[in-house]
Amino acid sequence: MEEPKYRIRALHTPDTVTVYQAYRPEIGLPAARDGRFPAAWKRDRMTWIKPSFLWMMYRCGWGLKEGQETVLAVEITREGFEWALRNSCLSHYVRGHHPDQASWKRQLGQSPARVQWDPERDLHLRPLPYRSLQLGLSGEASRRYADEWTVSVTDVTPLAHDVHALVRAGDLAGAGRLLPREEPYPTPEGLLAHLLVQEPATETEKLKSPVPSVP
Fold first, then answer.
1. Strands (E), 141-188
2. Model confidence over 114-173: pLDDT tens digits?
């Protein structure tokens, strides 16, 4: 079955969803040790969370990029995750989706969360034809993420290094077996309606469209 272009795939339970972030050790290690973000974690700054483990690996270079050496799996409540989605807007202007740039900018300034749909990645971190959710949190959303929604914080840097080592050794099957089990997230009806970009029909699709009958 073909993967739809826009869909949230995540490790989730009936009550929680797991997202990934990467930090320098001074932030990441205390967060994993205490199960919550330390006071040094700036709650007034925008933070991006990613339900895709492999997209996180693409972003942090398997935990080898400077300042992103500690990879965290952050389990948060589904209630909080869905609140952020419900109160988010797209991070960029899309002609035909937004009435105009001015209204999009107003929405962006008023929303505590924003969404980007970036290409999902394979084990070689190459882009795939379907998209992965990136959710940016600021203001109220950022504070609630750190202090209300977080259920657990786990250091998964060793997992990142193990998967990377298997990929480098050419053992893609072994690497795949280590990946978190990310499955389609059951979004309530209408939750993502304001975040899904409708692509214009191609000429081929237009030709396939049924011709309306003449009454």
1. 150-155, 183-184
2. 999 999 999 999 999 999 999 999 999 999 999 999 999 999 999 999 999 999 999 999
Q: Are strands 113-121 and 127-137 parallel, antiparallel or unpaired?
A: antiparallel
Nearest CA among 26, 72, 29 for reference residue 48: 72
* Burial (0-12, 13-18, 19+ Cβ within 10 Å), 174: middle
Query: Can you tell me the distance from the alpha carbon of 115 to that of 196, in angstroms, rounded to the nearest whole number?
Result: 10
Size (the chain), residues: 215
**CB-based contacts of 184: which residues, under 8 Å, 6+ apart?**
7, 8, 9
Q: Under a CB-based contact definition with an 8 Å cutoff, are residues 12 and 18 in contact?
A: yes
Tell me the domain boundaries of the chain: 9-208
Cβ atoms of 68 and 156 within 8 Å: the answer is no
Distance CA 44, CA 139 (A): 6
Give buried/exposed letters for 80-111 (b at 16+ CB in 10 A, else e): bbbbbbeebbbbeeeeeebeeeeebeebbeeb
